[in-house]
């Protein structure tokens, strides 16, 4: 639909990856064990990081928007009702089908239970993850930009924002790697450059305070969150009548997967953050699992992209294991061959790709993959470093930190899950409680989820943007994306980023129409 507005989209990258452009993301990290280099998990090209995402979609839960006394700095200035009108359209844009995120809502036909006999006031297994193709937004929606009122200018890097004495942004300075420079004037400016780069752009421009746009109270770049994630223990479900931890396909052809989710009332009672867990395959580097498919993945690890290999394998090297892995592949060759055919037809050659590797152990013994909310922490932050990039922009330094509250969320949830499994006669969950912190930080911050660096709130002293995503001190500057999320939820951020952006688009159209 034509909004009647003249929109210019500045895109740093081209259609294809470019090494010089990607290096503009380079920076430093305070602790290399805790966070990947800033140029990892991000793609500076048309379509951005949607060119490499896994496609996992789910909305935030209503509890995520609440101010919770046991979660410091929690509470959004908007509620789930403010995003609800936009989630269905976001689902369609992400090509994840209908906005239906429980098994009951998504499937009219009966589907097999995830864990037969699970009946708990603490955990549910009926909430879903739905999977995009995964959709490359650049490729998928380029034609809408070409045929519509939006002009796209590629290889154009936003570097400066000049402001009027009242704080309004007057113009943007744009530079190219070959050395050209020009300015852009507009009635309204929107930063949609990702959770790290949005903060970098705000900090790099002085604003009214001289400390960065929106940074009069030193909030920009603070409260940096990812997610707390890891794999731990052995879940033995031999007592359950049946177990199905794979994918179901909805009537519209969407891959859906259930997970174990800590119920909202349990979160409040236990004073834990939001938490989900998935049944996971045995540890890949250890050939003792005897599974040919997993050993094949280990032998193919040089071919796996960094973004996924880090968590798929970790840093473990099992001495003299290659021959043992090869023996697993040969011994389990029929199953390995079936896997390869399935992967070729349903992943490599398919438009809608099978989302991940699923292994069904005969003995119903799994490891547990968990994904948890990270508490907002003002000491976890990104700042401008000392180096500059090829455009003269100061690079970022990332100092990601977790807190004891984050460890507590995982500790409390795992203990509650072990009790649930045992009390239901389903089996047992065995893990080392003393190893929880080590396991949840084994690979550091969860790669591509950059959250909270320009948080939303009503008070300019503790937030950067208001409920409409407008920077408090600049009447015509907006920020969108996960940078504005006050809390992280358990959910991957993409679907909520899209929904929030649609809400912002509606707001801007109404505002600019009224202004004439």
UniProtKB/TrEMBL annotation:
Keywords: FAD, Flavoprotein, Oxidoreductase. Its cofactor is FAD. InterPro entries: FAD/NAD-bd_sf (IPR036188), GMC_OxRtase_C (IPR007867), P2Ox-like (IPR051473). The keyword Nucleus does not apply. Residues 376-500 form the Glucose-methanol-choline oxidoreductase C-terminal domain. Signal peptide: none annotated. The keyword Endoplasmic reticulum does not apply. GO terms for molecular function: oxidoreductase activity, acting on CH-OH group of donors. Belongs to the GMC oxidoreductase family. This is Capsular polysaccharide biosynthesis oxidoreductase. It comes from Bordetella ansorpii.
């Amino acid at each position: 639909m034509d909004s009647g507005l003249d929109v210019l989209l500045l895109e740093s990258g081209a259609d294809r990856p470019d090494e010089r452009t990607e290096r503009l993301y380079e920076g430093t990290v305070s602790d290399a064990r805790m966070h990947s280099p800033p140029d990892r998990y991000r793609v500076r090209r048309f379509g951005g990081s949607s060119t490499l995402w896994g496609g996992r979609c789910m909305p935030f839960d209503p509890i995520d928007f609440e101010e919770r006394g046991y979660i410091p700095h929690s509470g959004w200035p908007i509620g789930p009702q403010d995003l609800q009108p936009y989630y269905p359209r976001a689902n369609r844009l992400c090509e994840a089908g209908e906005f239906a995120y429980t098994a009951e809502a998504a499937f009219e036909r009966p589907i097999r239970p995830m864990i037969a006999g699970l009946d708990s006031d603490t955990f549910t297994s009926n909430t879903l993850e739905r999977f995009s193709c995964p959709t490359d937004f650049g490729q998928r929606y380029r034609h809408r930009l070409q045929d519509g009122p939006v002009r796209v200018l590629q290889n154009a890097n936003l570097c400066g924002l000049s402001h009027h004495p009242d704080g309004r942004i007057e113009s943007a300075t744009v530079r190219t790697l070959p050395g050209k420079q020009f300015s852009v004037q507009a009635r309204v400016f929107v930063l949609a450059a990702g959770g790290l780069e949005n903060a970098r752009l705000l900090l790099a421009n002085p604003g009214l305070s001289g400390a960065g746009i929106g940074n009069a109270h030193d909030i920009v770049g603070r409260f940096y969150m990812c997610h707390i994630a890891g794999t731990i223990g052995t879940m033995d479900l031999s007592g359950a009548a049946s177990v199905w931890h794979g994918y179901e396909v909805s009537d519209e052809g969407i891959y859906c997967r259930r997970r174990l989710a800590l119920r909202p009332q349990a979160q409040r009672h236990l004073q834990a953050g939001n938490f989900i867990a998935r049944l996971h395959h045995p540890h890949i580097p250890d050939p003792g699992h005897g599974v040919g498919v997993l050993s094949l993945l280990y032998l193919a690890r040089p071919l796996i992209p960094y973004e996924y290999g880090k968590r798929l394998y970790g840093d473990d090297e099992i001495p003299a294991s290659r021959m043992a892995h090869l023996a697993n592949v040969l011994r389990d060759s029929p199953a390995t061959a079936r896997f390869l055919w399935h992967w070729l037809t349903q992943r490599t050659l398919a438009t809608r790709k099978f989302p991940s590797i699923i292994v069904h152990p005969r003995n119903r013994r799994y490891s547990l993959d968990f994904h948890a909310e990270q508490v907002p922490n003002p000491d976890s932050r990104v700042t401008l470093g000392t180096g500059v990039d090829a455009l003269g922009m100061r690079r970022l330094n990332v100092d990601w930190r977790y807190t004891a509250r984050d460890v507590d969320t995982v500790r409390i949830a795992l203990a509650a899950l072990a009790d649930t499994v045992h009390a239901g006669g389903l089996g047992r969950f065995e893990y080392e409680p003393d190893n929880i912190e080590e396991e949840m930080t084994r690979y550091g911050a969860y790669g591509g989820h950059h959250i909270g660096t320009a948080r939303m709130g009503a008070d300019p002293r503790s937030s950067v943007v208001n409920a409409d995503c407008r920077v408090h001190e600049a009447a015509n500057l907006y920020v969108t994306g996960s940078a504005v999320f006050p809390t992280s939820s358990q959910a991957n951020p993409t679907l909520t980023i899209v929904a929030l952006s649609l809400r912002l688009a509606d707001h801007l159209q109404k505002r600019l129409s009224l202004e004439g």
